[in-house]
Amino acid sequence: MRRPWLRAATALFAIAWGGNHFTPLLHLYEARFGYAAVTVDLFLGTYVAGLVPGLLLGGALSDRRGRAPLVRAGVLLGALASVVLALGAAAPAVMCAGRLLAGASVGIAMSVGTSWVKELSAHRFDPRLGEAERTTAGARRPALALTLGFGIGAGVAGSLAQWAPLPSVLPYAVHLAVSAAALGLLAGVPETAEPTPGGPAASLWDDLRVPLAGHARFVRVVLPAAPWIFATAGIGYAVIPLLEAPAVGAWALGYATGLTVLTLGIGALVQPLVPRLDAATGGRAGVVGLSAMLAGLLLAAASASALSPWLGAASAAVLGAAYGTCLVSGLKEVQAIAGPRDLAGLTGVYYSASYAGFLLPLLLAALAGVATYTVLLLGVAAVCLGSLLAVARGLRTTRAGA
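-> C-alpha cells emitted (402 positions)
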C-alpha cells in the first residue's frame, strides 16, 4: 500500500469501527443486562461527551504538534475503549467510561485524521491524482473512510452478537485486531504539519483558539446544517430499530444491524457523487441534503405511527443519503475556509457541532413520556425545515471560501 493517504485513511476506518460497533448492540444490552432505554441512550450521550474534547483538543493541538502522533493516540484510545466495554458490560459506570474513551478516539480521527488525509492528497504525496479530482478528494476520502468504518464495524459487531458466541465480548476483540493492523500501516506515513516549538506563545489557550469559527460562511452555512448530520443518522440506526423492535421480535438485533449498515452504506455510496451534485446545483448540495433529511424525518414519523419495519428501512435509507450528502458538503466548505494552520482546529469545531445532533435520540427518549414518537419526530422535522431555510439564506448572502 504505497499511497500514504490510504494508509492514514485505514486508521480513520479502524477508529470509526470502534466508535460505532456499539450501536447495533443497544438491544442486546437492554435484553441481556436489563438496561432501560434511557440508560442505553445515555451510553450514546456519554460518547459525545468524550468526542467533543477529542475533536477540539486534538484538532487544535495537531495544527501545532503534528498529525501522526495524535492519530496513533486515537487508534490506541479506541482499542482501550473496546477492552473496557468488553469487560464492563454489566456495570453502567464502566460502560460510560468505555464510551467516553471511544468518543475521544473518534474525535481525534475526525479532526486530526481528516486533516491528515486531506493534506496527504496534495500533489507531492499523491502525484497520480488529477487536478480536478484533487479539489474534492480532501473531503471525499476521509469522509468515506469514516463512513465505511462506522458501517462495516456496526455490521460485523451486530452479526457476531446475533449469531456468534460471547456476543458482548467478541465484537470488541475483532476491533482490537483491526486496530493493531491500522497501527502497523501507519509506520512511515509522512507528517504533514510540522510541529511548532513550545514556549510562552504556544500556550494551551493558543492551541485551542480557532478564530475562523466566527467566519461568516461557517456561521451562516456550515453551522445550521452540521447538527443534522448525526442527528438524522442516529434516528436511522438508533431510534427506528428501537421503535420497530416489537414488530420484528426475535430479529430485533439483526434488524438494528441491517438498518445501521443500510443508513451508513447509502451514506457511503452517495459521497463520491456529492461534488457532481454540488456543481449541478450551483453549490447547493447542502440544501439538497437537508431536503432529504426533512423527507427522511417525515418517513420516520410515519414509521413510528405504523410500526412498519419496511417503512422504517425506507426512512433509514433516505436519512443515510442525507447524511452522506451533508457530511461531504459541509467538510468541503470547511476546507475552503481554513488555511493550513487552522484546518484541523476548524474541522474539530465542525464535527463538534455535527455530533451535538447525536444527542437527539437521548432527548427523544427523555420526552417519550410527554408525547408519542410520531409527534416528536414531526416536531424535529419542523426544526429541520427552519435550518434548511437558514442555510439557503446563508448561501445567498455569503461567498464560498471568502
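The mean pLDDT is 88.
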